[in-house]
What does this fold into?
Amino acid sequence: MRTHTVTAFDSELKSLNGGIEEMGSRTIAQIDGAVDALVNGRVEVAQDVIAGDRALDELQQRVEAAAVEIIAKRQPVASDLREVVTAMRIASDLERIGDLAKNVAKRSIAIGASATTFKVPAGLGSLAERVRAQLAAVLAANRAGNDAEALAVWRADSAIDALHTSLFREMLTYMMEDPRSIGLGTHLLFCAKNLERMGDHATNIAETVHYRLTSEFIASERPKGDLSSDVRPKADG
Amino acid sequence: MRTHTVTAFDSELKSLNGGIEEMGSRTIAQIDGAVDALVNGRVEVAQDVIAGDRALDELQQRVEAAAVEIIAKRQPVASDLREVVTAMRIASDLERIGDLAKNVAKRSIAIGASATTFKVPAGLGSLAERVRAQLAAVLAANRAGNDAEALAVWRADSAIDALHTSLFREMLTYMMEDPRSIGLGTHLLFCAKNLERMGDHATNIAETVHYRLTSEFIASERPKGDLSSDVRPKADG
It folds into this structure.
């Protein structure tokens, strides 16, 4: 049981974790904004997401600087050291998710500008919902120090990948049926890919949390669900 | 002028930089392999690239662990600390470039399997050539401690972005003219995007080298050349 003695290290660690918390909630808000902008064609929301990315970049720099300072000043070892190092890694993954959300927001503006009859496939909304849930779950697992929850997130990534591959095929079919939709369809393919990659970063975070709690790397290969890079083009088949 | 006294810190730093050197040459080899596989349809080269990615991941983990150990043990400050922290950042960017090369290799297999009459646009080769040159140049700038060279790489990224945007439009046009090429074309769009993102990582490294040498962040916004996320679809226009 934890005593009431708060050391300088504890207090610095708490501040470090506060930075991760703030990054986490901002990142989830950025995903929500980007998807709202895409699905509902809301340009002003997209612009907020684009402008809001800088705050995430700055937060990441602050977390990294704080972590380095703690390592140098306190020379932590074992689980204390892992906690500091993993905070840096998680901040890096959250920052990349923010970049991907910003890219979705930019594409939503490009799409919205010329597409009046445009409809985003329902699968894209489901994909976004799952990615968001995975990220929220892995951040909760990190907060609670719950390894089982982190592993559950890790395993569930294959469902996101499968959803992405199926959505990818569906959108390709639309594009083939109506070549006028190719420009739009391409933006949507990249948006879907960005969401799938956010899921990969959530999986990275799950691996990081597992390492933090157990000092072990997940030995097995990542469950493989995303086959969109392997989809054989039918054209010349 | 540097004295001949080699401290433990110097020797550890040298080993850390050796890790970056090894990652750098391996990453460039992975890019070369992936582009060879894509342009010349060489499946066995693609498989080597896919298998070779793990070595890069492991090298990155080793660089990170070594950097953390140096910070804890030596408590470096000022330029010494910056050198250690930036080694970690550069390793992270190189590892991501490796992931992108692996993805290009995977796509080259998917493309090659069904495309007998397939021809990769010449622009894709030029794009790859420039990205590779940027990466080699920024690693040389890091090695030599040459800020001017790092800044030159940073500025030149807009040329890569412009090349990518133009290639993107060209490929979209092909796809619209011949909808049977949509599957193939999509893989090529993602390959081109992966190359452009490798260029972004080279730019990240340029910023990191500048920070290492001057302790300053590059204040101005990144030169904006990649407008592919903003390309307005013509379909419903």
